[in-house]
Design goal:
Shape: globular
Structural class: alpha/beta
Order of helices and strands: HEEEEEEEEEHHHEHHEEHEHEHEHEH
Number of helices: 11
Number of strands: 16
Radius of gyration: 23 Å
Largest sheet: 6 strands, parallel
Distance between the termini: 55 Å
Helix content: 25-40%
Strand order of the largest sheet: 13-10-9-14-15-16
């Protein structure tokens, strides 16, 4: 079709929307491989379906799907075989009080464990991605990151530096030893800052038990990372696993919500994953407006929930 020359300057081709918009005239022109159904967003292999209320993210694999009553822009229908819970940076370095860890991060641990159990029981994997660097990672770390993780504004106290020892009760290594803590104390080598295998890099408290037992039982999977995001760059160990296992929908929680959690989530969004943040298993040491920024942007890019919104549906999924 030929358009009048006077309209050519007004014409804007929008291939992602699969139409040609020329001034006041809209001409439908579907692209090859794009469904004609206006409720389908995507292509024949990778798509969402807009429901009368909410969204279907199953990509046509509706058998044993779970409908989650998401408060905003929901409900959301997910496929358990294509969904996972991602726990980010709930490590001693960020949470343990002997290392000046965040009490708000420690406070969300019971809720996090409850949701971990619900995901496992509903047949969905739990993924742990934490700082866990090698010497190679540290040698190739950009200056900005080295400075950002320095304790005294020198490079000698950044990644890989020795963190000394901590004294904790033998009966509960998740807390600091004080004059009022019961029983004998033990001294633990905190290890090199955020390096693989170090005590400071392992999950805090009961989360360490959950992670090790989950990995042993095959319900959980652990991935080291060397940036704020567990999904940065061309590929990461976690992204490779997601691709190998056809995972498309990701629930996120951990610390800090505005840094490593949002960094992982937004990189997942850029790479085409469905992204959902679980607010009540996320925390931060940043001012409140940082969390508000995350909540605002995640609501545009995906969905926000609390664990209490989705737990009943996950429990029902286990029963069926």
């Amino acid at each position: 079709m030929k358009f009048p020359k006077s309209l050519i300057a007004l014409c804007t081709v929008l291939p992602q929307a699969a139409w040609v918009n020329c001034g006041s005239h809209t001409h439908t022109k579907r692209l090859t491989g794009v469904p004609n159904d206006p409720t389908i967003f995507g292509n024949a292999l990778n798509f969402w379906k807009k429901l009368e209320t909410g969204w279907d993210l199953t990509r046509g694999a509706t058998t044993n799907s779970i409908t989650l009553p998401v408060p905003q822009n929901g409900p959301v229908v997910i496929q358990p075989n294509a969904s996972a819970l991602v726990i980010i940076d709930m490590q001693n370095f960020f949470l343990h009080e002997s290392l000046n860890g965040d009490p708000e991060g420690r406070a969300i641990v019971p809720t996090t464990i409850t949701l971990i159990h619900a995901f496992r029981n509903a047949g969905m994997p739990v993924l742990w991605t934490n700082w866990g660097m090698t010497d190679y990672d540290i040698i190739n770390m950009p200056p900005a990151f080295i400075q950002g993780f320095s304790s005294d504004d020198t490079s000698l106290t950044s990644f890989g530096s020795e963190m000394g020892t901590v004294v904790v009760p033998q009966s509960d290594q998740s807390i600091a030893a004080t004059s009022t803590t019961p029983g004998p104390n033990i001294t633990i080598d905190a290890g090199r800052k955020l390096t693989r295998g170090s005590w400071n890099a392992q999950p805090w408290g009961e989360l360490f038990i959950e992670q090790t037992e989950g990995v042993t039982n095959g319900t959980d999977f652990y991935f080291n990372k060397n940036r704020l995001s567990g999904m940065w760059g061309a590929s990461t160990p976690m992204q490779t696993w997601l691709q190998d296992n056809s995972i498309t929908t990701l629930f996120h929680g951990g610390v800090n919500i505005d840094q490593c959690v949002f960094g992982t989530l937004i990189d997942a969004y850029y790479k085409g994953y469905d992204v959902i943040i679980v607010d009540d298993i996320s925390a931060t040491t940043s001012p409140s407006f940082a969390t508000q920024m995350v909540d605002y942007n995640v609501a545009l890019d995906g969905w926000r929930v609390n664990s209490t919104d989705i737990l009943p549906a996950l429990v029902d999924a286990r029963r069926t």
